Amino acid sequence: MRFKTSVRNIQTFSKLTASLSSLGKVAWVRLDDDNVRFTIIPETGTQVWAVLSIDSIFEDYTIQSAAQNNTINLELPLPPLHRALKSAINATSASIRLTKKDGVPVLSLTIITNTISSGNTANGFLNSANTDPFGDNAFREENLDANMGGDRETIVTQNIPIRVLTADSVEGIHEPRVREPDAHIVLPSLIQLKAISDRFTKLAMATTAGAGRGASTVAVPKLELAANMHGSLKLSISTDALNISSVWTGLTNPELDPRQVEDGEDGLEDHPSTKLKAAGPDAWSTVRIDGRDWGKVLSVGRLGGRVIACFADEHALILYVYLSNYDDGSDDSVLTASPPTKLYSQLS
Amino acid sequence: MTILNFTLTTEAIGKLHDALACLGKFSEAVSIEASHDKVCDIKYVATFSNFLQLVLTALNSSKSAYCSFTLVGNKFFSKYLYSPVRPRSQVKEKFNCKIYNKALLSVFKGRVVDPTREKDTAVEKCDVSVEDGEGTAKSRFVIKMACVLKTYRLTFESVAPMHALFVKESANNNWSISSRTLKEFAEHFGPGTEQLDIYSEDGRVSFTSYTEKIMSGNGRQTPVERSSHANGDSEILKQPLHTTIAVDTLEFGEFAVEEKLHIIISVKDFKAMVAHAGITNTMVKALYSRPSSPMQLTYSDEGVVSEFILMTIGESRGSSATPAPNAARVDSKRPAARQPLEATSSPKITAASMPPPPMSAAPSITRETTRSRVPRPSPPPPQPSIQSQSLFLPEADDDQKWDPQNFDEEEDEMLLWDTGGEKDAVTMNAASRLQASVNQNQNNSSQPRLSAQDDVGPSTVPTQRLAPTQRLSEVKGIFD
């Protein structure tokens, strides 16, 4: 079993892990010849099924295993992975390999940073002004080399403990099946949506749970999200004390691709979203979601991708996140071609 | 009677707060020692009678880490007066006291100058006086904040501090490095690791942060460990990151260390040191000899000399070339055992066993002749490094807006009175008119509390607040 790769886009990978780790602490990672999958199935909350093409985050990718398609399944703790990637933000290069350290399997992240001049010359100026006669180093001697600022290499190695999973243990895990959505809509600015959602949740908590204290033990009113097929999205929350909502208009309801729909053109005619559209702008598809969970979901906004929300009325909400920035030179046609990250918010 | 009296400028308040915050990471109590410098012991007493210092120290509970900040009287303070109780008595030459650190910290907290806030709220100066009396007389640590005058009276315990011993002469390994570089190193270390191994070979130095559990792996497990391992393999996933940073020795200012010597200290202590050293751009100097002997880390900044003495962990990997004189120690299979630092509190030995002072008498002569007689010397120049940092926000911070909101956190933001803001409101109103009444009000409220208290606790800080003018219940009423 061998796995080794260079990280091609550290920023994107780091933002992805940040978004994922707010939704769950452990991910099932499936690596094979074709793509990289991150799956998070928390006990409660939102499931993530992310499929990334290899070249969106990696390059010089080598994988080898006895399984079909050279598949390797790993169980990976997300916070340490994210932490490790933080070290790589200003790196010259970063690579990952699967190895063993003292008998424990680890993902070893090797980060190389070249510094032109180090910090120890930077303080020369400050210290010359420092006339402290008591300091040990009132007359500091500096190495000549320190001022020449040669190309110095700092290598940081971050070992993330992992578990290698057998093919059997992941066989039974399947993506949730959700009925065809009633409405699909491109979400507005996620940071705006997040700010307003968080505000609503806080207001609701403050007006229901006493003075808003100890709210974790009290049932928090759910946010109500609704979309129509005429470009509107409605966010609202209601408690005994208040009832607030925000409506976005002029959003896009993307056309469905007949090839993706069961029974093609005919299926599209019978599709729930077609019916909702026909019912006019006052026909909404509504889901209710825990505000705290929703806030975590919206943290995928940091990826800067396009997000399409699919509403299955009173049943489920699925977000399709399309990575936009995996290659700076990419155009829109590439974006939609890349497999989306899907977030399933199952509703109780 | 007042034994000690000193005045702090705004900058000094900030620095004192930084030092206290660092000391707080080692111990709950901070020992304060006011003394004439040790030059008093030699015959130039008359010349140097104004040469004073205040030493803040903390020793952790396992006595494996010691932290000290020496505030140089005439540099750090704008005014510093120390009048020993019995000037003729040699024994009472020093004044010692021990204070609950959180009490002090909360006094200075929030006093740090924040350039983004209005100037009105900044403290102009801070007078501290220590009153001590014989027998039944009250011993108090009195802090007066000028702006709106606020007076804090803290109780203290008269205990001689414990000083860790460090024998500089036997420390054959030394290096120095920029505090900023060390700060960058510390940022790579994930949370939860325990040890930091410093090792050098072939011009490369490695800093490894790890936890002993990972290092021992499958090898040296006890049956208990093995069985617990069997039923919970996912425990592995909870292991902290194992981080190695390998750098060129050229990153260091000086580097003279024995090849292939593993020296292991606690990551926590290291991070505490770096967090303080990294505030300013300075050179951190390390001195050590061999495993199981202490390591000394020193650096200095305007008027503050910082020293850390950290115990190093006994040899665990057996690859050191140093022949340890104690054979039993080499054979020890309990690598994580850290011997406590040698420390002493006996007043007589204290003078002799004080950590080697990082200052020499010679330069102080020049210092003395040029010493300004102006009661309030100009404050130390602002540190450009700190300002430049605030100009360029690190990129990572920007990303935080995406983090999920923590709704469980206590929030004063909404529908509640921000009691912290009340203080500012007072400031902005007629400060001079209120000053007298506030001060009086404070005295009334805090006096009875203190007299009833023997122990030093957080409640001994009578923070000055005006009561909200509207009841919380009334506020809620709007929505109910």
UniProtKB/TrEMBL annotation, chain A:
Pfam families: Hus1 (PF04005). Keywords: Nucleus. Its main location: nucleus. It is found in: Nucleus. The keyword Nucleus applies. GO terms for cellular component: checkpoint clamp complex; chromosome, telomeric repeat region; nucleolus; site of double-strand break. InterPro entries: DNA_clamp_sf (IPR046938), HUS1 (IPR016580), HUS1/Mec3 (IPR007150). GO terms for biological process: double-strand break repair via homologous recombination; meiotic DNA integrity checkpoint signaling; mitotic DNA replication checkpoint signaling; mitotic intra-S DNA damage checkpoint signaling; nucleotide-excision repair; telomere maintenance. The keyword Membrane does not apply. Residues 253-272 are annotated as: Disordered. Belongs to the HUS1 family. This is Checkpoint protein.
From TrEMBL, chain B:
Keywords: DNA damage. Gene3D superfamilies: 3.70.10.10. Residues 460-472 have a biased composition (Polar residues). Pfam families: Rad9. Residues 436-447 have a biased composition (Low complexity). One of its GO terms (biological process) is DNA replication checkpoint signaling. GO terms for cellular component: checkpoint clamp complex. Residues 316-389, 436-480 are annotated as: Disordered. Belongs to the rad9 family. Acts in DNA repair and mutagenesis. Involved in promoting resistance to ionizing radiation and UV light, as well as regulating cell cycle progression after irradiation. PANTHER family: CELL CYCLE CHECKPOINT CONTROL PROTEIN, DNA REPAIR PROTEIN RAD9. This is DNA repair protein rad9. It comes from Phialocephala subalpina.
